[in-house]
């Protein structure tokens, strides 16, 4: 099986992950997770240690389930998505160790200061997503492969759609966004959002020194 001329693992687990994401994500988000996966596969070609291809696929394809109505819970969206992926893998008899790698990859996908120091699945999941959202590492991917991926999975006004998703999370559960990327979206775009300042929290701790 291949997408955009890029060979991908052709397994029941990967097909099930694609089916789940396609059924729940808006088209612009589904295309985003697919591009992130394919960008990650290309980055793997120059990685010192290659990740497990099937686990990378599942982590990348399922990484935004926390933005869906079905899996939107009380946690920050990355953790909701990681929990959804854990449920998906447990139902299919995947080992606890492999499941934990996917959980970490999804839970940490917006936190490069942690993700880039973890196992290859976590590193490449984050890196593929960073290419698609920020353009970080795009120079490591040939123009031909970039164009093939963008043609196979068009962006479909991704920036505006993604901003809308994140701002909705800020409005729905503001206390889950104070220590992650959504804080910036809330400050800039959501009227009335005023996150706590951690310097004030430390100063106000109930201790004399």
Overview of the structural elements:
The structure is a single chain. The chain has 209 residues and is mostly helical. It is built from eleven helices and two strands, in the order ββααααααααααα. The protein has helices at residues 12-24, 27-44, 53-62, 77-91, 96-107, 112-115, 120-134, 143-152, 158-172, 182-189, 198-203, and strands spanning 2-3, 6-7. The chain has a two-stranded antiparallel ribbon with strand order 1-2. Strand 1 (2-3) and strand 2 form a beta hairpin. The radius of gyration is 18 Å and the shape is globular. The protein starts with a strand and ends in a 6-residue tail after the last helix. The relative contact order is 0.14. The mean pLDDT is 96.
Number of helices: 11
Strand order of the largest sheet: 1-2
Kindly estimate the percentage of residues that lie in beta strands according to DSSP: under 5%
- Structural class from helices and strands? mainly alpha
What low-confidence regions span 5 or more consecutive residues with pLDDT below 50? none
**Backbone CA Rg:** 18 Å
CA(first)-CA(last) distance: 61 Å
What proportion of the residues is helical, as a percent range? 55-70%
What is the approximate shape? globular
| Count of distinct strands | 2
Describe the biggest sheet?
Answer: 2 strands, antiparallel
